[in-house]
Amino acid sequence: MIDHSQYDNIEIPQELSSVVEDAITCGLGTQPRRRHPWRSLACIPAAMAACLVLLLNLSPTFADGACSLPVVGDVCRIFVFREYHSQDEIKYIDAVIPQIENTGKSELEQRVNLYIQQLIQNCLDESEARAKEYYDAFVATGGDPADFHPIGITVDYEVKYLTAQYVSLHICHYETAIAAYQTDYYYTLDLESEKMLTLKDWFGNDYKQIVADSIRRTIATWSPEEQRELWTDINLEDLITEQRSFYLNEDGQAVVVFDKYELACGAAGRPEFVITQE
């Protein structure tokens, strides 16, 4: 299970925004990637609002144009993508940094954006340190520096769910070396309460039982071959904590995610379960 406590306890200094910005640009420059708007005002007729949301989410060209309009642009809640690329003899980096804006809650935006920036910067720092270790070990064991294959470091994101109240975000940190290394972070933000949601927030005090029972019902539908990939000594309730990764899918359902090797053997990948209540 991913432990987010080290990030949750980060004390963010006032100057972090400029420091992170300087670190990630580092002479490479930044540019917007694309925009994902939210939806129109509730006072707009429902049919027109639905059409507008569909166009805003499916057409980046339409979205860019819409956000420049005085009315639609003022009500769009968007993520601004920033990306940068870097390469040397040790590593190459492709990183995308999401940013939330236009929520009408500047303090929330600043807190979330700095949190995400710090998380991504930590991921990059760790990957760069590992790349240096790989390189040093390669050279120390007689390898020709010219023959070293740079380590690939990728950070990207996906918006899983967007409504006027909730945004569910997936950040993926991927590293290619002798073996692939991947870490996934999922965050669901409640814009009304201005907080990151946990499974307990979503399902209530009985969240452990609700989630575990739903997972068991799903596993019962699997084939015998799939079930054999699961570890036999796992207690699901022990794995379901408030910090357990989850996101909201396009239908607004909570989806719980397990890391590779956490619930099953490597062949099972990263199992995901849509949580339903009977």
Structure write-up:
- The protein has 278 residues and is α+β, with helices and mostly antiparallel strands.
- The chain folds into two domains: 5-38 and 77-196, Fervidobacterium nodosum Rt17-B1 like (Heat Shock Protein 90), CATH 3.30.565.40; 199-274, Alpha-Beta Complex (Actin, Chain A, domain 4), CATH 3.90.640.20.
- The protein has ten helices and eleven strands.
- The chain has helices at residues 5-8, 16-25, 46-58, 60-66, 72-75, 106-140, 199-203, 207-220, 224-227, 236-239, and strands at 31-35, 78-87, 91-97, 100-101, 151-162, 166-176, 180-190, 195-196, 246-248, 254-257, 272-274.
- The strands form two sheets. Strands 1, 2, 3, 4, 5, 6, 7 and 8 form an eight-stranded mixed sheet that branches.
- Strand 7 and strand 8 (195-196) form a beta hairpin.
- The radius of gyration is 21 Å and the shape is flat.
- The model is unreliable at 1-8 and 12-76 (pLDDT under 50).
Tell me the layout of helices and strands.
Elements: H1 5-8, H2 16-25, E1 31-35, H3 46-58, H4 60-66, H5 72-75, E2 78-87, E3 91-97, E4 100-101, H6 106-140, E5 151-162, E6 166-176, E7 180-190, E8 195-196, H7 199-203, H8 207-220, H9 224-227, H10 236-239, E9 246-248, E10 254-257, E11 272-274
Parallel strand pairs: 3-5
Antiparallel strand pairs: 1-2, 2-3, 2-4, 5-6, 6-7, 7-8, 9-10, 10-11
Helix pairs in contact: 2-6, 3-4
Please describe the structure with a list of short key phrases separated by commas or semicolons:
Actin, Chain A, domain 4; 10 helices; 278 residues; flat; alpha+beta; single chain; 8-stranded mixed beta sheet; 2 domains; disordered N terminus; Heat Shock Protein 90
